[in-house]
Amino acid sequence: MDGAVMDGGVMDGPTVAIDLAALRHNLAVLRSRLRPGVRLLAAVKADAYGHGAAIAAPALEHAGADAFGVATPAEAFALRAAGVTVPILLFGPIDRGIAALVEADVALTVPDARALAAIEAAAPASAARVHLKVDTGMGRLGVAAEGAVPLARAVERSKHATLEALWTHLACADEADADDPDGLTARQVERFEAALANVRAEGIDVRCAHAANSAATLRLPGAHFDLVRPGLAVYGHHATPGAAALVPSDVPALRPAATLRAPITFVKRVARGDTVSYGATWRAPRDTVVATVRLGYADGYPRAAGNRGEAVVHRVRVPVVGRVCMDQLMLDVGALEGSVRPGDAATLLGPDGPSAAALADAVGTVSYELLTHLNAPRLERTYVDDAGAAG
Ligand SMILES: Cc1ncc(COP(=O)(O)O)c(C=O)c1O
């Protein structure tokens, strides 16, 4: 992998290397949780959670992903331009550009009569494939469970829409029961089952129902229905260390696909009491060695990781000291006994470095936010595979 990002042992700048074999592994782990016949839609919104949808999605399709989920029309068109042929679902409703989306064979989310009216007004050349969204407790998008029947009937009546699925989104699947107020997950599943039964009782054919994100795919088989929609786990992550702890012990470990590395550009001795970086928030507790790394918050690394984050240098875990700057950060490499040189690589995230969940926990966020910053424009992205070949 180093061959793709280093030249003569010296890195030019920060890089994120995406391991396509890890994506395949994670897909297989997720698939192994499903009963036969349940399909898998991989969420590839936000540029495949920062992993680069144009490469990651075709690789996932090749590895057997049945469908993809995106947040914006532009993301859907980009998948088609990248050669994706499997079904795509747009997670949110839209008012404009409907005919072009239908022509690109993108299924549309309908959370209310307004969204259906927009489809009717667009009068696409062929009927839009509609996924009717039910809000069972997320409180974000969707018709209330009681409103599902009239909305489904309206879709059935429309000559511009065909009802393909009923779906919902879980708010607490990655929370321990103690953190899931009122057992919300179980109640969401019950409400969704009731809405589905009511629609079917009207004689309306709902071929597909879906509800499960990564956490529910890994730990709640009762929420799998006909299709699961994992995102985060496809890329090898859990939202937080707490969410990771909820995954049943017989599930094989996921493999983080992304490795964030950056070159050390400067190494110096600092005396006990010297301070480092803006605000002088870190004072050396002893004589030590500090390495400066060419990675900052403009490269997607969180500023909040100052005095909290960690890196791995020469296989040794070292702390980020002082504030993270726009383009640089500093590490206390005193533990490496003088073996660190400019040009050496520091790993800030990845299977051989800190996990996204641990860093997220340290800086008060979730791994999703950190990962979606991995497509910062200054990060050079490379793709590697089992054999270590750049893709
Ligand atoms: C509607 C919808 N489905 C599925 C997912 C995938 O969730 P996760 O990344 O937790 O697996 C998301 C992401 O937030 C989503 O918004």
Write a structural description.
The protein is α/β, with parallel strands linked by helices. The chain has 2 domains: 33-237, TIM Barrel (Alpha-Beta Barrel), CATH 3.20.20.10; 258-384, Beta Barrel (Lyase, Ornithine Decarboxylase, Chain A, domain 1). It contains 13 helices and 21 strands. The chain has helices at 2-5, 20-31, 45-50, 53-62, 73-81, 98-103, 113-122, 148-157, 184-201, 214-219, 241-245, 356-363, 367-372; strands spanning 6-7, 10-11, 15-19, 39-43, 67-70, 88-90, 106-110, 128-135, 143-144, 161-167, 208-212, 227-228, 258-270, 275-276, 282-283, 288-293, 310-313, 316-321, 329-332, 345-349, 380-384. Strands 4-5-6-7-8-10-11-12 form an 8-stranded parallel beta barrel, surrounded by 5 helices. A 6-stranded antiparallel beta barrel has the order 13-16-19-18-17-20. A two-stranded antiparallel ribbon has the order 1-2. Helix 4 crosses helix 5 (73-81). The longest helix has 18 residues, at 184-201. Bound molecules: pyridoxal-5'-phosphate (PLP). Pyridoxal-5'-phosphate is lined by residues 43, 69, 91, 169, 213-214, 229-233. Pyridoxal-5'-phosphate binds next to loops.
